[in-house]
Design brief:
Number of strands of chain A: 0
Shape of chain A: elongated
Largest sheet of chain A: none
Shape of chain B: elongated
Number of domains of chain A: 1
Helix content of chain B: 55-70%
Strand content of chain A: under 5%
Order of helices and strands of chain A: HHHHHHHHHHHHHHHHHHHH
Largest interface: A-B, 67 and 63 residues
Number of helices of chain A: 20
Number of helices of chain B: 9
Structural class of chain B: mainly alpha
Distance between the termini of chain A: 25 Å
Oligomer: heterodimer
CATH topology of chain A: Growth Hormone, Chain: A
Largest sheet of chain B: none
Distance between the termini of chain B: 128 Å
Radius of gyration of chain A: 24 Å
CATH class of chain A: Mainly Alpha
Order of helices and strands of chain B: HHHHHHHHH
Chain lengths: ~450, ~190
């Protein structure tokens, strides 16, 4: 639960970003940092947090981490400015890193052995990441963006209460520093592949949401419903993952499926939610296969588990940050280009239409005004056509024109995300390289 | 089961194991199939609706229809003005309607209002020429209109472009009147 709760936080806020953007009146770049800051701090603090778990005892560090995560979640929910929100997100990530790394150290005593613990830990993380956007969208639409953070407070309290007896029992049994230093080198290939896959998944999880909300102007709840395809596919593929012993095969096939899904999203034939479902399903199945396989491989036969678990967390979230930092400027630039193209195409469609010529210049100006008023967003041009003409024939021609322009804008917005999805597919394919190059005995369990 | 002992993997026991090669082959086949199907359905085929070259000649259609004539007159005038300024007719169409948008457009392009006025007049002249070429306007009326168009204030020129339907409606009447006068004059001649 702790792992799922914390790792869901890396993606849970994505559907709330437009809402935060409007409410806190900040720039797009600043609001992106709500996402980037959490993942960046999580990546940076994972290894020190894992060392703390070894040094002071995993249960105590887990309780402290969950408590800090809960307090920071409360601060996020109450933040009235972007500065406070970003600061609270950083603290949340530090607490989260401590809780997640310590949880890996605690799990073997709960589930039986280290191998099973690694599998449960990796699975919980993958599920949390997959479910995050949908849950966040639902809460944003039904309550508010603040509720995303506030609901984590009681969840953190429950986790801390469950772990508290183990923390009390642990006093005086902390490891010595020498043991921490003898952790050994991390599994380079598996961690490199994890970073690349996570960069690709950043696109699958975040760009799909942005396409649905910012591109196609869906409500957060509708977008949340649309993106459930990914976690459903991940859950459906989990039993298949258990039927394949080879972690290398699971990792490779998962990377191929994620690449295929992202390529499908880059090649969407039309602006249709239904068409996003098969690519999302592929990416979800790939996520279930590859994230758990690579995490298990990175942890297999390595001790202490918390330190190597820290490496996987650092790799995953560094990958997410790299993915976001590479892809955000690409799609924002493409969106700007396509927005300009859509404006010209929309007015071209108006000029060549059968609408009353005496209203064309006025309509052209209203369309241009709508586009300008929306700033760097994909415009909603529908209101430019209000009020509709009373003459039935003229009204019909105007509605047909409006539909045609809206369709043009939808297709332009869809196309604006194409390059980013293709680059992300490239990240997933690039992960095949460390998977293939790693020595068979090294990556197999 | 004792604490610390590994639990058997129930799914692995109950379901047959999947060969690594089969898994990789199936993943590749599904991924390639999705990409092929989406490409075949038109994925990656999006191109924005092309914006016409305003300097290219525009062939008028159905010049006998008053509304169609008004449409063509508007497009020809926009083409002429846009070509003169070196912008697309779409950009100009959004800039012309009000004094404020015209001033904004002129500032963005680094031109003054006189230059914009000249361009709009050039557009009206081209529309008159195109209308004459399409037999939608009498050459005689056009001759009378050209000097007028060359002196039209920008507001009037835009109004003329915008409401070309009324203009052609009236012009038809003018043509009839002029035609009648010419007939009468012809009868009086020896």
């Amino acid at each position: 639960m702790v792992v799922g709760l914390v790792l869901a936080d890396s993606s849970v806020v994505v559907l709330a970003l437009p809402e935060i953007y409007r409410e806190l009146d900040v720039s797009v770049t600043a609001v992106t940092w709500v996402l980037v800051a959490f993942n960046l701090v999580l990546a940076i603090s994972a290894l020190p947090a894992a060392s703390c778990a070894r040094r002071f005892g995993p249960a105590r560090v887990a309780v402290a981490g969950v408590a800090l995560f809960g307090i920071a979640s409360l601060a996020c929910g109450l933040a009235g400015s972007i500065g406070l929100l970003l600061a609270a997100r950083c603290v949340q990530a530090i607490g989260g890193a401590a809780a997640v790394c310590a949880a890996l150290e605690l799990l073997p005593s709960v589930v039986g052995d280290e191998r099973r613990a690694a599998r449960v830990w990796a699975g919980a993380g993958a599920l949390g990441a997959a479910l995050g956007p949908g849950v966040g969208g639902l809460l944003t639409e039904l309550i508010s963006w603040q509720s995303i953070f506030l609901v984590q407070v009681p969840a953190a309290i429950v986790c801390a209460a469950v772990l508290a007896p183990a923390a009390v029992a642990e006093r005086g049994r902390a490891r010595v520093a020498a043991e921490v230093r003898a952790a050994g080198h991390p599994h380079v290939a598996a961690n490199a592949a994890l970073a690349l896959i996570s960069a690709a998944l950043a696109a699958a999880l975040f760009l799909v949401v942005l396409l649905l909300i910012e591109g196609w102007r869906l409500t957060p709840i509708a977008a949340a419903a649309a993106v459930t395809a990914l976690p459903i596919a991940a859950l459906a593929a989990a039993p298949l993952a258990r039927r394949v012993e080879s972690t290398r095969a699971r990792a490779a096939s998962g990377a191929i499926l994620i690449a295929g899904g992202l390529a499908g999203l880059a090649l969407l034939p039309d602006a249709s939610i239904a068409l996003t479902l098969p690519p999302q399903a592929l990416a979800g199945a790939g996520l279930a296969l590859t994230l758990s396989a690579l995490t298990e491989a990175a942890l297999a036969g390595r001790s202490p588990q918390a330190i190597h678990g820290g490496w996987t967390i650092a790799s995953r979230h560094a990958g997410v940050v790299a993915g976001l930092l590479v892809l955000t400027p690409v799609f924002t630039a493409d969106l700007e280009t396509e927005r300009a193209n859509a404006e010209q195409s929309g007015i071209a469609a108006l000029l060549d239409s059968g609408v009353d010529p005496s209203s064309k210049l006025d309509l052209a100006q209203r369309i241009a005004d709508r586009i300008e008023a929306e700033g760097d967003k994909v415009p909603i041009v529908g209101p430019a056509f209000e009020p509709l003409p009373e003459d039935p024939a003229e009204r019909e021609a105007t509605i047909a024109l409006r539909t045609s322009i809206e369709s043009e804008i939808d297709r332009a917005a869809t196309h604006a995300f194409s390059s980013s999805f293709l680059i992300a597919a490239g990240f997933a394919l690039a992960a095949l390289l460390p998977i293939a190059l790693s020595r068979r005995r090294e990556i197999e369990l | 089961m004792r604490r610390g002992e590994a639990k058997p993997n129930r799914a692995a026991v109950e379901a047959p194991a999947v060969s690594p090669r089969v898994l990789i082959a199936a993943s590749t086949a599904i991924s390639v199939a999705l990409v092929v199907v989406y490409l075949a359905a038109g994925g990656r085929g999006y191109e924005p609706t092309p914006v016409a070259d305003p300097c290219a000649p525009r062939a008028w259609t159905a010049p006998e229809d008053l509304e169609e004539t008004a449409q063509q007159f508007l497009l020809s005038a926009l083409d002429g003005a846009a070509c003169d300024l070196g912008v697309s007719r779409e950009t100009l169409a959004a800039a012309l309607p009000s004094e404020e948008t015209r001033a904004e457009f002129a500032a963005e392009r680094g031109i003054d209002e006189v230059r914009l006025e000249q361009a709009v007049r050039a557009g009206v002249l081209r529309a008159i020429d195109d209308a004459v070429a399409a037999d939608a306007l009498s050459p005689l009326i056009a001759e009378g209109l050209r000097p007028l168009a060359e002196r039209l204030p920008v507001d009037e020129a835009v109004a003329l472009i915008d409401d070309a339907g009324s203009f052609f409606d009236d012009a038809g009447g003018v043509i009839d009147d002029l035609g009648g006068l010419l007939d009468q004059a012809g009868d009086l001649l020896p």
